[in-house]
Amino acid sequence: MIPLDPVPRPLDHLTLRGCAGDPALATRDGVLDFAGLEAAVGALAGWLAGQGLASGDRVATWLPKTRTACLMPLAAARAGFVHVPVNPQLKHLQVQHILSDSDARLLITQAVRAETLEMEGVRIVTDDPPLVGPALPLSDADPDALAALLYTSGSTGRPKGVMLSHANLWLGAISVAHYLALAPDDRVLGVLPLSFDYGQNQLFSTWAAGACVVPFDYLLPRDVYRAIERERITTLAGVPPLWAQLLDIDPQEIDTSSLKRITNSGGALTRRLISGLRERFPQADIYPMYGLTEAFRSTYLDPALVAEHPDSIGRAIPFAEIMIVRPDGAQAPAGEPGELVHAGPLVAQGYWQDPERTAARFRPAPAWSQAGGMAVWSGDTAVADTDGLLRFVGRDDEMIKSAGNRISPNEIEEAITAGGETGEAVAIGVPDERQGQTIVVVAKGDGSAEPALRERLRRDLPNFMQPGRYVWLAELPRNANGKLDRVGLRGMIS
Asked: Taking a C-beta distance cutoff of 8 angstroms, is the pair 147, 169 a contact?
């Protein structure tokens, strides 16, 4: 188990955490050991430094899990830039918003993706940057300096960029590597998008432990089983829909005995999923977790407690202070629900160029907080039991969480009404065992435009934002203030 060193370092120093000859990154291009990882990061950083950018400029990647995509977070940090990873599932409209909002100066992507964009002010590179050649040395960046913008949807408006420092990312890596007890002989299968805090941390926490990460894009759940066997994977992180997919098929003779730990976030594990995972992977520990992009990760449940407390999200991870706060600002006693508030060095620096939403979510910690400083007020309701174990109660905002993605209802509604098939629409998340939530849209009209609407949205929205069902009404109900009655509509379709 790696020690809990609370002193953050520049993010690119993660290349030094493993032994030179030990494997660090295994992609289709082959395997890099830690010496190769350091050399490739240095060369990519050197290439970035020669692109005519200013210190602090944003550089974006819109890529599958290529070697370049995996190295860019460290290389950009070493070169003094801010990395903006873009989810490869997003379509051109969402990508253009992220590039424009972040004022990205450079985008590294593939030619087929670049052809879909209409952007000014950003230089697009579609050739693979060199990973050999003159290298920049290790950086001496201030740990509090901005290192990345991770875009996440809010309950209102378009995706917003969460500002993460070197310290945020470094300490998150150390924390996770410690409580998962990762070791140099571990092999971590990275199936989650690198644009997610959870997916990106798999790179950082693996390297912090001196272990090897195997990035993997899959089409079918059987591909995941085969990768576990082929790569002798010890650690698999996922979201509830992945577990449901894996449990729906019989792996037959595929050997998954190497798997030692399963980690979950992006939605609660149901009792059915926990039972199924314990039966399918009896040799693996299960780590339920809860997190916020604004503070990376907040809690985890010790695998020894999963059987007895399957509904719990556990306790605070190292370096995090987690509080349950009453509406009056006092600490909620055991058994009383309150808002989950996260304080400590994992708290992000706010939302990029958005002081209004930053002020709403990032506020001073309660006076009784041990960490003090700025805290993330999650808007989520949780409750602690007498042993200090936390249970998630509900989400106060209207965010839809489907297949591990946090989705803004307003973004879906904006896309729906943009084509003229309907003038009003409300997107609502309803419980779904496989996806966590499925998207139901209540729209104004008689339904005759639904085929055309579905066809257009397939072009304009990624798969995880596609509505599963439509309900058509002649008029949508409104509340006393003249606004669409979302509460009433939710009750109508739930």
From this structure: yes
